[in-house]
Amino acid sequence: MPQYRIVTPAIAAAGGYALEMEALAGLDAVIEEAPTDAAGFLAAAKDADAVYAKGIPITKEIIDGLTKCRVISLGSVGVDSVDVKAATARGIPVTNIPDTFIEEVADHAMTLLLAGFRRLVEQDKLVRDGRWKEGRPALYKYPRLMGQTLGFISFGRVARAVARRAAPFGLRMMAYDPFIDETLISEHGVLPATLTEVLTQSDFISMHAPARPEVHHMLKEQHFRQMKPTAIFVNTGRGPTVDESALIKALQEGWIAHAALDVLETEPPSHNNPILRMENVTLTAHVASASARFDEARKRRVGHELALVLSGKWPMSCVNPAVLQNTALQRWQPVGLGRGPNS
């Protein structure tokens, strides 16, 4: 019997778990699949040493039923599928992979910005419909990109990478993020601003807020009403941070000009979602992070985080470092490969 059991929902995993197991090879650990219903998963994971979360919500009910769990690891940036508060209360670190596909998402955000600005989908359709001569006049009403203002809502790692890409285009940039020091924002050539300033002054608004309860529907009707009627809204963050009904109304009534979206409030969208039929919307299917290295990199990172914790070290990317303050966690060694709770 292996020394460590890692339980994960039985969601199709291309290639199995060979990549995750690379870092776990010397620990006498095994990854076991469990049913995807809450009761079945809990029954299988009850005495597991770790949970590899994917595909199903890891709720408070599940977390409270775990008797030996030392870590819950996610192979994503977002942690909204895990009740982090419940895990913290139980002294269980929750890990994610916030820096594995920053470059891909930043590339995609810039792609959506440019595609929306130059109305790429519309131009493509004109050519395919035999309306070649209409293409150039359709763009005469839009200004040149240089000198326009790009505003960021949240200025984490992806937004900073977008800023690096946007700078050579001659865009003026500003960002709202109350959790980041203004000097850090300024160091990236971006002007620190209030949310109102970003909304009212930006020609492009790039949304990067994470999926957390406190930012659910962060952008509502009153926020879209503050934007320029010529503004383009880009979202490569999380769909639920935006009140989608308000966004739809803004697009229908001309409060803003265009939306370029990789994420929606409900995914995949219902066939009757009005966004699917809007000509002033550019859509991709939550694919911003996808690349040839994506799956391998994230799986190896999950295995690395699991190995660190099961070895008694602190994980690299812990989203709830407050668990270290729990006196029951004296086993932790925030040294060596682990960067500590304040990194």
UniProtKB/TrEMBL annotation:
Pfam families: 2-Hacid_dh_C (PF02826). The keyword Glycoprotein does not apply. Residues 110-288 form the D-isomer specific 2-hydroxyacid dehydrogenase NAD-binding domain. Keywords: Oxidoreductase. InterPro entries: CtBP (IPR043322), D-isomer_2-hydroxyacid_DH (IPR050223), D-isomer_DH_NAD-bd (IPR006140), NAD(P)-bd_dom_sf (IPR036291). This is C-terminal binding protein. It comes from Siccirubricoccus soli.
